[in-house]
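Q: Predict the bound structure with 3-methyl-2-oxobutanoic acid.
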Amino acid sequence: LVRVTAPALLQKKRSAEPITALTATDYPTARLADEAGVDLILVGDSLAMTVLGYDSTLPLTMDEMMHHARAVRRGVQRALLVVDMPYGSYQIDDTSAVKNALRFMQEAGAEAVKIEGGRRRAALVERLTQAEIPVVGHIGLTPQSVHIMGGFRVQARQEQAIETLLEDAALLEAAGAIAIVVEGVPREVAARVAQALTIPVIGIGAGPECDGQILVFHDAVQLTFSQPAKFVRRFAQAGDEMLAGLREYCDAVKQRTFPADSESYHLSAEVRARIEP
Ligand code: KIV
Ligand code: NA
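A: Predicted complex:
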């Protein structure tokens, strides 16, 4: 088993081989994503919404993220493991950001951390990189900025914003980022970012010209409870499958067809003879 490394991702970009990535939130999702063969597994802070039921990523704490990251670590053998820095864990000052990132490296076995933002994070990306913490950037639609963006909306649709995005990407690369995620931008814009950078550009809602794609695990398998965004494709129908199975379970219990005799333990013949007259 050959583990995926940051240089291996760079090599994929150089040879124009698409990079596959998924989020994972716990041991079973990590096992499944890793066994499917994805190159990169992200413990995304979207787990605040998909598995913790918050309505944005903002309430997620360091401790909550640590709990999930450690469970994912136990399920990943091959993929490169990246952990999202939660909102509030890297915005206060660079020293506390390095401390928090080091916790994910040391206590959760992360191989890189991801932080949101372009030019305003360049100095921090450099600082983390100097501390031997590989960094994945994240630009475009950055969900931790939901209140600044005024909702989850497609970014970089006009000339000025496109220029800004391209500059942000270049600044993150220059600061030492090992890859960047570009989320929620027009396909044509993401294509220009991927073209302009040497490091891999992993897209979500950013069209097919990126160097790789990432999806939220629960979106990809339909383990969600609302209509998906336009960019989501359902590659499995896990929610429907599970609900149908659970309803069958309830029926079987009510009809006393579960458990069957074959699903029950039995006494030995000798003991049975002694206690049954
Ligand atoms: O939290 C997350 O799931 C993410 C991906 C969508 C890139 O940041
Ligand atoms: Na995230």
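A: The chain has two domains: 6-236, 241-275.
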